[in-house]
Amino acid sequence: MRRELLPEQSPALLRELHLLTREGNLNADALRKLKQVNHLVGLLRPAMDELQERHGAPVVVDAGSGNAYLGFILYEVFLKDAEAGTLLNIEGRPELTQRARERAERLGFSRMEFQTAHLEQAQWPERLHLLTALHACDTATDDALAVAIQKGADHVAVVPCCQAEVATQLKESRQGVDPTLVMLYQHPWHRREFGSHLTNVIRALTLEAFGYQVTVTELTGWEHSLKNELILGRRVHKENRPARAKLEALLGAFGVRPKLTRVLGVEPTPRTPPA
Ligand SMILES: C[S@@+](CC[C@H](N)C(=O)[O-])C[C@H]1O[C@@H](n2cnc3c(N)ncnc32)[C@H](O)[C@@H]1O
After folding, report:
1. How many angstroms does the Cα of residue 21 sit away from the middle of ligand 1?
2. Is the pLDDT of residue 39 over 60?
3. Which residues span the domain enclosing 13?
4. In ligand 1, which atom is closest to the CA atom of 140?
C-alpha cells in the first residue's frame, strides 16, 4: 500500500477518509479513488509550489467537493505544514459538507473550510488562486469555471463529468448547420458523445480566450474513460483575442451556446444563411 502514497501522505488520513480498512488495506474502489486523486494532486504540485512561493497564503477552492477527498489530500500534502493558505470546499449536499467538516475538525485541519451551497449561489472568496472541480456534475463544471475566470484565478484544474446540455442544443439547432458537420451527430448516441466532446473543447477554448494557457490530458487510466479528461489552465494574459474569435466561430458553426459562454457573455459569430 505504501507505494500508492505520495511522500507527504499519511495512512492515518486515509483511515479517517475510510479509504483504508482497519487492517490497513485498500479495497478496489478505494484504490481507484486514491489513484485518481493522488495523480491529480501530483499534477497540481507545480501550481501549488508556485502559489505558495508567490502568494504565501494561497486560496484553493474545490467546487462540487462531495466527500472532499481531493481537498483533504491537497491540504495534507501542501497546506498542513505551511504557515498559511486555505482550502474551501463548496458542495450542494449538506450531509456531505457536515461529515467532511467533522473530519477536518478531528484531523485538526483548521484552514480547511466548508460551505453548503449550489455553486451559482455560493459565497466565493474575493480572490482565489486555484480552482479545482473533480467530476462536478453537468453544468456545475461551467459554474465553477465561470467564477474562476471572473475572479482571475491563477490556475484551474477541472475533470468534467457527464454533460447533457450541448447534446440538446445540437439537436435543436441542426437547421443552418453545415450538413457535413451534422453527420457527426445524427444518431442520439453520437450526439451525446459529440456534445460532451464539444463542451470540453469549448471549455478549453473559453479559458484560452480569457488568457489561460491550457493543457488537456488524461487524468488516469480508470473505468469511466469519458469522465477522464483533465483540463488544466494557467492564467498568463488578460485576454486572447484570436482564441476569442475562434471560440465565437465554433459556437456559430454548431449553433450551440453552453452555460460557460452564456455566463461570460460570449456570443456566437452569426451564421450566414444558406444561399
Ligand atoms: C460525482 S460527485 C464528485 C465529488 C468529488 N468532487 C469527488 O471527486 O469525489 C459530484 C458532486 O458535486 C456536487 N454538485 C453537483 N452539482 C453541484 C452544484 N451545482 N453546486 C454544488 N455542488 C454540486 C454533488 O452533490 C456531488 O457531491
Report:
1. 25
2. yes
3. 1-134
4. 19
For atom 14 of ligand 1, the residue with the nearest CA is: 64
Amino acid (one-letter) located at 144 = A
Structural domain total, the chain: 1
Q: Let me know if residue 73 belongs to a domain.
A: yes
Tell whether ligand 1 has an atom less than 6 A from the beta carbon of residue 69. Answer: yes
Give yes or no for residue 64 CB within 6 A of ligand 1.
Answer: yes
> For position 226, what pLDDT does the model report?
57
Give the integer Cα–Cα distance in Å for 163 and 138: 5
How far lies 118's CA from each of 96, 185, 248, 260, in Å?
A: 13, 32, 28, 16
Is 70 exceeded by the pLDDT of residue 43?
Answer: yes
Residue 41 counted as domain residue: yes
The pTM of the whole model exceeds 0.90: yes
User: In this structure, which residue's CA is closest to atom 20 in ligand 1?
Assistant: 118
184 located within any domain:
no
Percent of the chain whose pLDDT exceeds 90 = 78
Q: How far is the C-alpha of 103 from the C-alpha of 135, rounded, in Å?
A: 22
Instruction: Quote the pLDDT of residue 221.
Output: 65
Closest CA to 9 of 30, 37, 51: 37
Ligand 1 pocket mutation pick from 19, 123, 137, 259 by most atoms within 8 angstroms of CB: 137
The protein residue whose alpha carbon is closest to atom 26 in ligand 1 is: 66
Cell 483511515 belongs to: 15
CA of 117 to the centre of ligand 1 (A): 11
Task: Give the CATH number, domain containing residue 36.
Answer: 3.40.50.150
Is 65 part of any domain? yes
pLDDT score at 3 = 74
